[in-house]
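Ticket #4471: structure export looks truncated?
Reporter: QA, pipeline team
Priority: medium

Steps to reproduce: submit the single chain below to the structure queue and open the exported record.
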Amino acid sequence: MQKVSLGKSGIMVPPLVFGANVFGWGVEERSAFALLDRLLDKGFDTIDTADIYSYWASGVGGESEVIIGNWLRTRGNRDQVFVHTKGGAPDAPGEFANADLSAAYLTKAVEGSLRRLGTDYIDLYYVHFDDNKTAPEETLTALQRLIDQGKIRAIGASNFTPERLAASLKVAKENSLTPYTCLQTHYNLYERSGYESGLESLCVAEGLGVLSYYSLASGFLTGKYRSEADLAKSASRGSSVAQYLTPRGLLILEALDRAAQKYNATQAQIALAWIMARPGFTSAIASATKIEQLDDLMAAAEIVLDEESIKDLTEASAY
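Actual output as written to the record:
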């Protein structure tokens, strides 16, 4: 497993980043500790979370950060782990109207994350959703102040349009402010157009690192769901997976099956390896609730797809 630089930051990250959105929801603290222990033991030292995880499961948000903070304190390994978290989405994610990237809100959000994580610095801090009510100058100046104070070490953007990301990068350059070093984006074999239609060319041109979330399309790309009857396998994921049961989705599964057989791998490993092979991509973010699932995900980092397999997967998922 080879680490790569996160954009121009010099921060080295593994090709697989663990998504801790399952903590405080599908995974309680004891199981979370076991997953994180295994992750670090295998050399995968980067965890992705957010201050609103897991508000959707009878919580108020912050539960994931608290669990990670308890693990860091219990294990005494803060200097061995890279923690990525996000702020700026006080309400439900996806609702841009609710995002708040004002200086006052971000300052408060970072302090809250530091407290829950039990640390005095955050390795990478994302603005979770864009806020077109706040000028990029205000947001970036606030983040610069937090960097100067040593509270965050690098910054990233998440869920930005190409236009707004370009504007923010321009503001940073013109005002000698620290720019976003990476973009976290919704991307997988099935859902490609949102990133490839504008963001991809910008990120490659500007040298931004790119990390994908929903890398396995809510579990569809594991190959476990191939018909409506299969949706009953998971009460929590069934409704989310149904949208992928289309002729195109089935073509993607067939391509995954071919590559999985060729590499003696699982469909999930192939889906992640395809992302890792995409131009400009630094890492794929993926979650696991069990050790065996985590082992399967980590093994994806050892798979190097040849041009034939990449072409087959890319053509099968054409949109």
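Status: closed, not a bug. The export was complete when the record was re-opened. Leaving a note from the reviewer for reference: The first helix runs from residue 29 to 41.
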